[in-house]
Task: inverse folding
């Protein structure tokens, strides 16, 4: 009788422990999804500003057609992406296209003096800063989930319940060299 009670108690403890691990994994996954929802809000604002920026620049730089097409296509792809992973890829492509637009703008000093353009630049810069903060929070939530999915004992449950390691929102490879390069300082 005592052995049966001990076995039942151990089984109940194991069940409670397993439920606790599962609930923690669900909380971490939901936290990651919530963090991406915050990123998504910033991305939406960015997507709304891009057509205005492109229209303003087009008036000054009509022969930069390829740059405008890349930005427009990248924006459309980013807006059409459905899953978190697809959005991450599409947003990285859009960031690269916007970097190309910034380079094109450097050739037009009269554009850089335009009030509309300056206002849009300020708004986009503000959104990019907010987006960077949201991405950091998203990556932190992703890291917590990935740690739980990969570490013992939760990894025993993670695979069985469909939890897997998720990708971070990282700087695209083509931009990594620019980010890692020390700035040129001239006096």
Result:
């Amino acid at each position: 009788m005592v052995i049966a009670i001990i076995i039942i108690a151990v089984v109940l403890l194991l069940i409670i422990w397993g439920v606790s691990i599962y609930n923690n994994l669900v909380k971490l996954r939901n936290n990651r999804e919530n963090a991406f929802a915050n990123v998504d809000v910033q991305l939406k604002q960015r997507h709304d500003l891009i057509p205005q920026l492109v229209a303003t620049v087009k008036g000054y730089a009509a022969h930069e057609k390829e740059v405008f097409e890349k930005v427009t296509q990248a924006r459309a792809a980013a807006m059409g992406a459905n899953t978190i992973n697809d959005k991450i890829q599409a947003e990285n492509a859009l960031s690269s296209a916007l970097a190309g637009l910034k380079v094109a703008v450097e050739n037009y000093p009269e554009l850089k003096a335009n009030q509309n353009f300056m206002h849009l630049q300020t708004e986009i810069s503000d959104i990019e800063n907010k987006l960077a903060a949201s991405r950091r929070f998203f990556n932190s939530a992703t890291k917590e989930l990935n740690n739980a999915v990969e570490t013992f004992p939760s990894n025993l449950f993670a695979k069985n319940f469909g939890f897997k390691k998720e990708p971070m929102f990282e700087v695209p490879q083509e931009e990594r060299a620019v980010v890692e390069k020390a700035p040129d300082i001239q006096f």
